[in-house]
């Protein structure tokens, strides 16, 4: 699958990143779930990429499409750029951890409270 680039709203398809030389998803159990993409800076698609854009890609041959939010773009001396993106679930995990720390709840209790607050 060719990775797809969406605008920050997640609804507008900006481009198919067909010029990408590398697109790798790193997934560890209970750990990181990130996408790394290498793209030539001379590509017509490169100027469209900015922080908080979304990239949709397959994490493996059999997995469903996953959404990743761009959080870092680094240009290299070789005329390429490395784009780093985190899985869509990361912001929710960060919010839950902050809630647990700020209210001194167990993980189970914090999850219940967070789900309950969304129902209301």
Give the key terms.
2 domains; 7-stranded antiparallel β-sheet; 2 helices; 22% helix; disordered C terminus
Give me the Rg, rounded.
17 Å
Instruction: Give the topology string: H per helix, E per strand.
Output: EEEEEEEHH
Q: What is the terminal-to-terminal distance?
A: 39 Å
Strand order in the largest sheet: 2-1-5-6-7-4-3
Could you outline the blueprint of secondary structure elements for this entry?
Layout: E1 4-6, E2 13-16, E3 22-27, E4 33-40, E5 54-57, E6 66-75, E7 80-87, H1 90-103, H2 107-119
Structure, explained:
- It is a single chain.
- The protein has helices at about 90-105, 105-120, and strands at about 5, 15, 20-25, 35-40, 55, 65-75, 80-85.
- It is α+β, with helices and mostly antiparallel strands and about 120 residues long.
- The chain has a seven-stranded antiparallel β-sheet, with no helix packed on it.
- A hairpin with a 4-residue loop joins strand 6 (about 65-75) and strand 7.
- It starts with a strand and ends with a helix.
- Residues about 95-100 and about 115-120 have low confidence and may be disordered.
In short:
Helices cover 22% and strands 36% of the residues.
């Amino acid at each position: 699958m060719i990775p797809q680039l969406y605008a920050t709203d997640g609804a507008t398809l900006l481009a198919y990143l067909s010029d990408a030389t590398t697109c790798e998803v790193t997934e560890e159990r209970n750990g990181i779930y990130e996408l790394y993409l290498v793209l030539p800076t001379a590509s017509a698609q490169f100027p469209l990429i900015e922080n908080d854009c979304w990239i949709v890609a397959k994490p493996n041959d059999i997995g469903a499409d996953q959404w990743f939010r761009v959080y870092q773009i680094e240009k290299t001396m070789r005329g390429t750029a490395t784009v780093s993106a985190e899985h869509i679930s990361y912001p929710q995990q960060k919010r839950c951890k902050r809630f647990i720390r700020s209210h001194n709840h167990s993980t189970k209790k914090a999850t219940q409270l967070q789900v309950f607050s969304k129902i209301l």
